[in-house]
Amino acid sequence: MVAALAVLILLIVPSVWCCWLTWRHLRFLAAEKQQKKRLHLKVLRLKRQQHYLLITLAHPEGRPLPRAKAGQHLLLYYDDLQGKPVSRAYSLANDCHHRHFYQLAIKCEKNGRLSQSIFQKLKQGDLLCTSYPKGHFLLQNSNKPLVLIAAGVGITPMLAMAYQAIRQQRLWLPGNLLKRPLSQRHMPKRPMPKRKITLVYQCRDASQLLYHRLLQRLPGLNYVPVLSQPDANWQGKSGRVDMQYLLQLGGKDGHYYCCASAAMTEQLAADFSAAGVTHFSYELFSAGISSQSFLISYQQGQQQVHADSAGFATVLDALLASGATIASDCRGGSCGLCKKRLISGQCKQVLEAAASCRADEVLTCCIQPLSDLTLLDTAI
Question: How much is the pLDDT for 300?
Answer without folding.
Answer: 82
